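Exercise 7. Given the components listed, write out the predicted structure of the assembled complex. Treat all entries as one system.
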Amino acid sequence: MGADGITILCVDDEDIPRMLRRLILQKQGYNVLVASSGAEALEVLAGGGIDLVLSDQMMPGMTGTDLIKSVKASNPSMPAILVSGVNEIPVDAAYADRFVSKVGGPELLFQSVAEVLRQYGHDLEHKA
Amino acid sequence: MNEQDQANILMVDDQPGKLMSYEAILGPLGENLIKAKSAREALDHLLHHDVAVVLMDVSMPEIDGFELADMMRQHPRFQKTAIIFISAVHLTDLDRIKGYRSGAVDYISVPVVPELLRAKVGVFSELHRKTRQLERLNLELERRVEERTEQLRRSEEKLRERADLLELATEAIMVRDLNGTLLYWNSGAEALYGWPREEVLGKPLHELLQTKFPMSFLDIQAELAETGAWRGNLVQYTREGHEVVVGCRKALKAEGNAILEINRDITSQLKAEDALRKTERLAAMGRVAGIIAHEINNPLEAITNTFYLLRDHPSLDDEARYYAKLGEEELHRVAHITRQTLGFYRESKHPVEVSISTMLDEILELQMRRMEFDKVELEKQYRTTGTIRGFPVELKQVFLNLIGNAVQAMPDGGRLRLHVFEAPNRANQRAGVCISICDTGTGIDAEHAKHLFEPFFTTKSTKGTGLGLWISKGIVQKYGGTIRFRSVSLAGRNITCFQVFLPEAEFERPEVHGLPVGEELAVAAVAHGS
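Answer.
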């Protein structure tokens, strides 16, 4: 199975960063769905077909960790990555499989996504 | 003559008629006349009055005049009392009178010549009065002497108490004359500076303590002369050569011939204040870092992603692609700095072999135009390639900061000297590479020097971020290295040298996987500043 078959749910309340994150992931061959809030993300997830959740941490209402905590509670095998621009690690960030800095650049993000997917048994052709 | 000054004249005779005639004769003297008809009565009066002269008849029944005189002389109070015998003088009488060696004794022979009697009694009365006055004066004098002695004793006691107080004081209390020679040095001074009193008295105070004044000595003298006092902080040296900062209060003595100086050691207080300020600054730094992280990192990610998308976009021609690549590279630098500065993530790559000299040349390449423009001469001396294992980006950051600062310090030209040499393994230091970067620019004054490696400290006002040296120090420390500097003024030229030491021991850093390292690094921002 290649990156082409993988669907990532990209969650961020800010439109432009979310769009750009979607575009670079698509350029890597991933399918990308988006959600602008934790609540919306949970709705999309309920529809099924998502292989990995990639969420921003700082969002109004439900934060990234809140979302991932909720996802993992109902589906522990759902890979989840938290991205953040702040330099403080959220208290319960450990619910996520990986915590990635926004300033790590696209390569770090791709590498993290690939590693987490492999961790969950996805065999990727694409290597970061 | 008032009553007090009247002398008592005791007249003793068994014949009242004679007593009356004596009274008549002596009346004009204005003295107090006391009559006694017998020796016994006379003794009684003597006991009750201070008698100046006793006028006595020799021949009296019971106790005669001589017997009365004998009795009087035995009593210490009457030994000096003047006695005038009235008698028909026989030779034997005269002999007896001479027998009364002590005290004034005289005789009058009968028949009594009134003038003579009056004169004699007058002389004795006057003598008595004068003696009494003298005694009174003496007493008064003695009283005054005693009073004065008591006053002196009290003031001496006060002085002693004050001296004791001076010894109790923990402050260094000193007195020096106008030439600076030490006159007094309390135990507080002994404790603070380490010299015992006997070794310093008579020596010049400020030469002894190598005092550094915050203003010119002449200005201090002028202020002392004008206002009588001065206060400020001084830097001095103890006998052991330790530097102490003292809060100093000087006062010109009222007589204007000496200067009192009270110094309190505020070295540790200043250090504590300094540490507090640094802590406060770091705390503020942390808050600012949080804000910067949020406000910068978010758009930074967006821009980085934009360039990533742009880089290989098919619509771009070679030139546009080149620009996009340049932009992306510069952006990497920004991202790297925010990661470093805000203590987020370290690079997750392995360390590689880095040649410091090659790296310096690359940096010089970037600085060359500016150096040419500012007429900065370059002197390079690479005695080694300076190869160590490390991370090129952050090492480059260190030397870019140091060389950049050096060049910027010489806007009117100067000389930049770069030395790279091997530092041998010494007792207190591992083997490694030393890189020294010297400039002949504006120099660094002592006040700035203290804060040089603190975050947000800058001498470039609006141009600098105040983070360059702070970050550099943090990076060098991560390699187990050191960064030192020295700024001296020689022949009117400032020479500032930064020396970086990087140990050759293989540098390994933890991999970044998941949270633990991230947690460790979240506090890296604070650790850098230490």
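Discussion: Chain A has a mean pLDDT of 87. Chain A touches chain B through 27 residues (CB under 8 Å).
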